[in-house]
Amino acid sequence: MLAAWYERPGPAGEVLQVGEMADPQPGAGELRVRVAVSGINPGDAKKRGDWVGGGLPFPRVVPHSDGAGIVDAVGDGVERGRVGQRVWVYGAQSYRPFGTAAELTVVPADQAVELPGEVGDELGACLGIPGITAHRAVFGDGPVAGRTVLVQGALGAVGSLAAQLARWGGATVIGTVTRSADLDRLGAAVTHGVALDDGQPAEAIRAHAPGGVDRIVEVAFSDNADLDAAVAAPDAVIAAYATRRERPDFPFWPMLFANLTIRLLGSDDFPRAARRQAADDLTAAAREGALAIPIGEPLPLQEIAAAHERVEAGARERVLLSIP
User: Fold this and answer.
1) Is residue 278 part of a domain?
2) Beta-carbon neighbour count of residue 103 at 10 Å?
3) Which range of residues forms the domain containing residue 183?
4) Are both 165 and 259 inside the same structural domain?
5) Burial tier of 156 (Cβ tally within 10 Å: 0-12, 13-18, 19+)
6) pLDDT by residue (tens digit) across 155-178?
7) What is the C-alpha separation between 92 and 105, in angstroms, rounded?
8) Distance CA 103, CA 101 (A)
């Protein structure tokens, strides 16, 4: 099969290679997917660059955890009827060496989710890491119907899906952007938009939620901890999936007196039941047309280095690879 891989960490243009590899075979409880589209996330580029300094976990890594395609083989214990099924894939390169940047990928059977006919491969390839993270951030502490959810960074891959899932779940959604000029880019799922550069973002958020917000989906905990504390309702949850500083400061006493919960989200390590529920809900929301994701024109597999560079440059559209 044709695949892309790296065998040492480093810049995309220096370490990513494209060539032929042996076809993988599914083991017990696994199935093989002929990949049509491979989705690239910032985490894929960070792994390639060895951002935590732990070295490569495997001698060769075929990157990317997300994708979409067709099941073409199954291992022992997997229903033969799944062959030919259109699926979206998540976690392909989570604690595993070979992801979706290849013609074929093998995953545990429950990590290949049937893709409804109404949903295209490109959207399916965008659901994995950002969608499951967004779902856990929104629903990890129960339903949100009738509640107010604040999504910090509502234009990001996780943030935009969190806003849409929260609205799908019956919440009122307040979404923030960094600059006022970006307010008109917020989608219909965001009931109220707030720009962090307006000088008084806490007052702006409180104007839409006088009693405070019930859930906060947080993309930059180190930057926004004070703002989160200022707008959180009593017993609110701050679900943080990213931070700019590794050791963030936060206002302990205001958060304590409000009895806030800080939930930290590492998508590779969510409980299996939570991942399966997220996959079911994401598929249902996509089928109902509740999810819209800006997607750029997919690049060919041979241009994987350029695709990684687009992701690292902060592309506003999701970056995908089209697999031949």
Assistant:
1) no
2) 19
3) 130-268
4) yes
5) buried
6) 999 999 999 999 999 999 999 999
7) 7
8) 7
DSSP secondary structure letter of residue 33: E
pTM (two decimals): 0.96
CATH number at residue 48: 3.90.180.10
pLDDT at 319 over 90: yes
Residue by residue, DSSP assigns 229-266 as HHHEEEEEEEEE---SSSS----HHHHHHTT-EEEE--
In the block, tokens 């290849």 appear at 102
Nearest to 282 by CA among 168, 186, 171, 187: 168
Both 189 and 105 in one domain: the answer is: no
Quickly tell me which residue has 């990890």 as its tokens.
Answer: 140
Q: What angle do CA 239, 243, 247 make, to 5 degrees?
A: 110
Per-residue pLDDT tens for 69-120? 999 999 999 999 999 999 999 999 999 999 999 999 999 999 999 999 999 9
Contacts of 113 (CB under 8 A, 6+ apart): 87, 88, 89, 90, 279, 280, 283
For the record, the structure tokens of 233 come out as 């309702």
